Structure formats: C-alpha cells, structure tokens
Amino acid sequence: MTPFLLIVIAVLIVALVYLMVRHDVRERVIEYLNEERHLGKEKRKATLLRHIRSRGKITNDEAEALLGVSHSTATLYFDELEAEGKIEQKGEGRGTHYMPIKPLRGTEPTTHER
C-alpha cells in the first residue's frame, strides 16, 4: 500500500468515528432536553395545582400570569390536571374557572403531588 492510500483510509476511519460519536452525543442532548422540558412542565402543573388548592379556584388569565405561559398552554395544563382527576372546570366562556376536586378520605395527595 502506498502512503497516500494509508492516509486516505485513516482519514475515512477518523471521519466515520467522528460521525458516530457526533450522532450519539446529539441523541443524548435531545433526550436530556426532552427530560428537562417534561420536568419543567410538571413543575408548572404542580405550581398551578398548589395555587388552586390554596386559593380555591383560578381562571385561565390568572394561570397565564402565574406561570408566564400562553392561553393555550394554560388550557393544556388545566386539561391534563382535569384528566388526572385533580381539578374540575366550572362555568363556560369568560366565566370559566377551575377548582380542586376534594379527595375522598384516605386518598389525599402525597407530598410530591402537592
């Protein structure tokens, strides 16, 4: 083999290893960011739920201001909390507000859920 051919093969091997490592790092970064996004969302939902439980009710506008999120994001959080059986919607349109669902005796939320 000529020295030139050896250099070309070495460069190709280095390039291949670089691309494989880069792909792995990229996948790990994406996974980390998705986990952080999910944790942030869960923290905001927990904040919203604590506020509802302490105040008795909350509107979408109040949730937007409390969390610094858009109207649709606040609505999404309310929908998820409602599906989880933690809150209920009262009223419609501009009069809509959300209230905590009173837990049955013995089913109080854990410290983590508060």
UniProtKB/TrEMBL annotation:
Q: Where is this region: Disordered?
A: 89-114
Please provide the record's keywords in A-Z order. Membrane, Transmembrane, Transmembrane helix
Taxonomy, superkingdom: Bacteria
Q: Does the keyword Membrane apply?
A: yes
Q: Which residues cross the membrane?
A: 6-21
**Matching InterPro entries, A to Z?**
WH-like_DNA-bd_sf (IPR036388), WH_DNA-bd_sf (IPR036390)
Coiled coil regions, renumbered to chain: none
Under which name does UniProt file this protein? Helix-turn-helix type 11 domain-containing protein
The source organism is: Candidatus Kaiserbacteria bacterium RIFCSPHIGHO2_02_FULL_49_11
Lineage at the top is: Bacteria, Candidatus Kaiseribacteriota
